[in-house]
């Protein structure tokens, strides 16, 4: 049976975001409009401080827009919910729980009402195995490496079987080799699960490698979408093959041109 | 013949080995006899190193105590009314040889007095923990409650514990509950404040996790707030028990009955200064033990 793909699975309409702080008001986002297709992988890229994390937090429901509307699967986003799982930049695992307990907390919340404990445990174990951490399931977060922590964060998000996976600079704090490794794994996992994803990043290669489309944002204040780039590279993508691929390099230079020519950030 | 001789020799060595196996150093010596014989005195063994570090650890506090006793002796020579360490020691030996006698309500052994004080502190402190810790959670969790509690805590906390005694006497119409009340009111503040500070310091990341997972308030408290706040709470508990133990002597001096505080007052009236000095040491040592017990408890519950 052919699945009907929703063209506007996640939708942002005229979203404005103004922060009211002690120092005064700060207009972070102005007139942000875009929509995400079901099953699509979107990257949001821009210079630091351009409000890309704000966009993600709005979709997550952690922030409410001052103006405009956000929809997910046809319903307005009123607050955070487990159908929009977040992988946090600093993994945000609870240090007093083991890896599997961290995942279990999420599983229990989403499926606890309908499934037995055995089923919940099985889900937890499956999620931990999916990210290749079966051997570290009973370790606490401070006993494992940064890359492993981030994997647990991904496992926790995926275990909730979200409709949309939100990734906030998920690999930003990792070394280059670990990052490349996790990017490959994420690609494989996303291909398997077919879930919609939005990732905030400042890494051009990461954005081109992983995304179906790249949303490029102008500099703040009052940042908005500068351009959206289609990445029509065939999947599965191979890092080494793409390095020689002229189209990949063309896309890469398009993003670089956007960031450093059209919207270069003045030295702070 | 020679074969038998050899076998006798080997039996001997086996027996020797068996005798020496219990100590690990001997096993080492048997395994490397040449090396052990060549340098027996040059390098200190692990055991003597351990002994040395133990003494290095032990000596400073021993010197401290000796210095205190020396100063005390000097002062007691200058002031004839103050008993020196020796006469105090003899008095203490006599006192602790029968700590649990019971002649009359006003004449009981030192053991009963300490236990009576500990009971009061335990009751007052326990009630304070029962009320103060949940209150701290509520104050830390909700901005409104925190703003509401701020003036109350601000005004009541600096009040000297003994100022609460008349109120206690008035309300409870008895000395013992009044003393417990004083302990309660002076021990509650550190627990409220430290718990509330801990709750307000929970990283936003953890709260974001709670929001994204849509955790219930109960899960937030048990899985996120409580484990995070526990070390802060234990600090509050430690400060509280310190305050409670500080206050008990003064409170009992005023309320009377059985207890270490009243005992000090009683011995002052008897002009038995040795006993007062003993009481000071007893209060100090019991306080130290309480502190140590709670510190080790706190270490056990810490997640790090």
Q: How would you describe this structure in keywords?
A:
heterodimer; A: 268 residues; alpha/beta; six-stranded mixed β-sheet; four-stranded antiparallel β-sheet; 10 strands; B: 304 residues; mainly alpha; MetI-like fold; two-stranded antiparallel sheet; 13 helices; flat
Q: How many β strands of chain B by DSSP?
A: 2
Mean pLDDT of chain B: 83
Report the principal-axis shape of chain A.
Answer: globular
User: Helices and strands of chain A, in N-to-C order?
Assistant: EEEHEEEHHHEHEHEEHH
Q: Which value, in Å, is the CA radius of gyration of chain B?
A: 30 Å
Highest CATH level, the class of the domain at 1-80 and 212-268 in chain A = Alpha Beta
Description:
The complex is a heterodimer of chains A (268) and B (304). Chain A is an alpha/beta fold and 268 residues long. Chain A has a domain at 1-80 and 212-268: Rossmann fold, CATH 3.40.50. Chain A is 37% helix and 24% strand. Chain A has eight helices and ten strands. Chain A has helices spanning 52-60, 99-111, 117-130, 146-159, 176-193, 204-210, 239-244, 246-262; strands at 10-21, 24-36, 41-45, 67-72, 75-76, 84-87, 164-168, 196-201, 213-217, 225-230. In chain A, the strands form two sheets. Chain A has a six-stranded mixed beta sheet, sandwiched between helices. In chain A, a hairpin with a 2-residue loop joins strand 4 (67-72) and strand 5 (75-76). The radius of gyration of chain A is 19 Å and the shape is globular. The mean pLDDT of chain A is 88. Chain B is mainly alpha-helical and 304 residues long. Chain B has a domain at 102-301: MetI-like fold, CATH 1.10.3720. Chain B has 13 helices and two strands, in the order αααααββαααααααα. In chain B, strands 1-2 form a two-stranded antiparallel ribbon. In chain B, strand 1 (102-104) and strand 2 form a beta hairpin. The chains are: A alpha/beta (268), B mainly alpha (304). Chain A binds chain B through residues 60-62, 79-82, 84-86, 88, 90, 92, 94-97, 105-106, 109-110, 140, 142, 160, and chain B through 205-206, 208-209, 211-215, 219, 223-224, 227-228, 303-304.
């Amino acid at each position: 049976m052919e699945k009907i793909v929703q063209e506007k699975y996640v939708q942002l309409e005229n979203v404005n975001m103004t922060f009211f702080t002690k120092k005064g008001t700060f207009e972070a986002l102005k007139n942000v409009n875009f929509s995400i297709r079901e099953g699509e992988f979107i990257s949001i890229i821009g210079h630091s401080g351009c409000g890309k994390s704000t966009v993600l937090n709005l979709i997550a429901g952690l922030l409410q827009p001052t103006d405009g509307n956000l929809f997910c699967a046809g319903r307005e986003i009123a607050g955070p919910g487990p159908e929009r799982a977040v992988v946090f930049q600093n993994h945000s695992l609870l240090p007093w729980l083991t890896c599997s307990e961290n995942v279990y907390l999420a599983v229990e919340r989403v499926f606890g009402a309908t499934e037995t404990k055995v089923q919940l445990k099985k889900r937890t174990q499956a999620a931990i195995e999916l990210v290749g951490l079966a051997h570290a399931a009973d370790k606490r977060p401070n006993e494992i490496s940064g890359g492993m922590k981030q994997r647990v964060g991904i496992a926790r998000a995926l275990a909730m079987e979200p409709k949309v996976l939100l990734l906030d600079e998920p690999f930003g704090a990792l070394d280059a080799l670990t990052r490349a490794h996790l990017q490959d794994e994420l690609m494989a996992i996303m291909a398997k699960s077919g879930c919609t994803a939005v990732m905030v990043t400042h890494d051009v290669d990461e954005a081109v490698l992983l995304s179906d489309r790249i949303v490029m944002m102008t500099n703040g204040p009052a940042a908005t979408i500068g351009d959206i780039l289609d990445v029509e590279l065939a999947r599965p993508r191979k890092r080494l093959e793409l390095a020689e691929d002229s189209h990949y390099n063309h896309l890469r230079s398009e993003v670089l041109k956007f960031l450093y020519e059209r919207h270069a950030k003045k030295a702070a | 013949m020679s074969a038998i001789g050899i076998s006798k020799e080997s039996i001997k060595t086996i027996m020797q080995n068996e005798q020496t196996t219990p100590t690990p150093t001997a096993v080492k010596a048997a395994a490397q006899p040449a090396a052990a014989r060549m340098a027996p005195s040059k390098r200190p063994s692990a055991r003597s190193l351990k002994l040395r570090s133990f003494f290095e650890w032990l000596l400073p506090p021993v010197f401290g105590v000796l210095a205190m006793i020396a100063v005390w002796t000097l002062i007691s020579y200058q002031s004839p009314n103050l008993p020196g360490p020796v006469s105090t020691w003899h008095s203490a030996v006599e006192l602790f040889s029968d700590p649990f006698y019971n002649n009359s309500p006003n004449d009981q052994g030192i053991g009963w007095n300490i236990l009576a004080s500990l009971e009061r502190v335990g009751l007052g402190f326990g009630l304070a923990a029962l009320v103060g810790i949940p209150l701290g959670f509520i104050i830390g969790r909700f901005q409104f409650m925190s703003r509401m509690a701020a003036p109350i805590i601000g005004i009541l906390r600096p009040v000297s514990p003994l100022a609460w005694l008349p109120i206690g006497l008035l309300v409870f119409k008895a000395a013992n509950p009044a003393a417990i009340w004083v302990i309660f009111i002076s021990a509650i503040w550190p627990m409220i404040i430290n718990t509330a500070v801990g709750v307000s310091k929970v990283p936003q990341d953890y709260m974001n996790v709670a929001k994204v997972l849509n955790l219930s308030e109960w899960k937030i408290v048990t899985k996120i707030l409580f484990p995070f706040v526990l070390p802060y709470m234990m600090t509050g508990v430690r400060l509280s028990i310190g305050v409670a133990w500080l206050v008990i002597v003064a409170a009992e001096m005023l309320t009377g009955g059985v207890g270490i505080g009243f005992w000090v007052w009683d011995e002052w009236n008897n002009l038995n200064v040795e006993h007062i000095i003993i009481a000071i040491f007893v209060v100090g040592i019991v306080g130290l033990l309480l502190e140590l017990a709670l510190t080790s408890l706190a270490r056990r519950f810490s997640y790090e």
